[in-house]
Task: inverse folding
């Protein structure tokens, strides 16, 4: 059986561990590849690097910052993407308050020590039921592996990203929009906006889930992606 080439794009402070369960679960029907988004300080460069490493044509699954890169891939090489899955992301630029917050984080990192994802920050990333336990521990471990310099590059890239709303009506490939029902960073309203703007897209909501369904609800995430690959 021919397996579908499938490129995964991680989020901010995430590495390949974010999508590791799905890459394994789908290996019977997909040929998975997890991009490294830690090396560049612009979304344009992240997308170009991912494209250079990707097969000629591929399905694309992305979470959060990875969604911003997915939109850029669609701007650079739309003919190469066969289907699209967008998890917990948005097409809009940052609100001014968020820009201020990101810049403050970059400034503090320049003069201090990178602390990764702290216990205080975990409730913004995962559902309360996952803060204490393996999921919370994995989120912290990923952030430390990614490290401060890469975090700064990623924040600069996010700050410089374009408004992707004009792109959305032009997306013609089968598209899945997915979001955790308790996501406070990119809430369900952002997913709904994507769903309404992308023609023919499907919307899936994960229950009792925050910003990282691939870690919080790995089996359901794999099943949703399996279904998507069969559309």
Result:
């Amino acid at each position: 059986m021919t397996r579908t080439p499938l490129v995964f794009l991680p989020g901010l402070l995430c590495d390949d561990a974010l999508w590791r369960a799905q890459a394994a679960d789908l290996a019977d029907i997909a040929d998975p590849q997890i991009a490294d988004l830690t090396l560049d300080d612009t979304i344009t460069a992240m997308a170009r690097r991912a494209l250079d490493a990707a097969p000629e044509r591929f399905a694309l699954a992305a979470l959060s910052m990875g969604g911003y890169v997915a939109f850029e891939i669609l701007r650079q090489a739309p003919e190469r993407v066969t289907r699209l899955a967008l998890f917990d992301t948005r097409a809009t630029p940052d609100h001014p308050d968020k820009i201020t917050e990101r810049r403050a984080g970059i400034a503090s990192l320049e003069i201090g020590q990178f602390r990764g994802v702290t216990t205080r920050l975990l409730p913004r990333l995962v559902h309360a039921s996952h803060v204490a336990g393996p999921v919370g521990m994995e989120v912290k471990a990923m952030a430390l592996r990614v490290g401060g310099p890469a975090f700064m590059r990623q924040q600069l890239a996010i700050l410089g990203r374009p408004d992707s709303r004009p792109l959305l009506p032009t997306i013609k490939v089968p598209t899945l929009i997915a979001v955790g029902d308790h996501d406070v960073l990119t809430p369900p309203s952002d997913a709904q906006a994507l769903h309404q703007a992308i023609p023919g897209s499907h919307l899936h909501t994960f229950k009792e889930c925050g910003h990282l369904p691939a870690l919080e609800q790995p089996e359901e995430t794999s099943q949703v992606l399996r279904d998507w690959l069969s559309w």
Notes: Strands lie at 4-9, 30-34, 58-63, 81-87, 175-180, 202-206. Residues 96-111 form the longest helix (16 residues). Residues 34 and 163 are 25 Å apart (CA to CA).
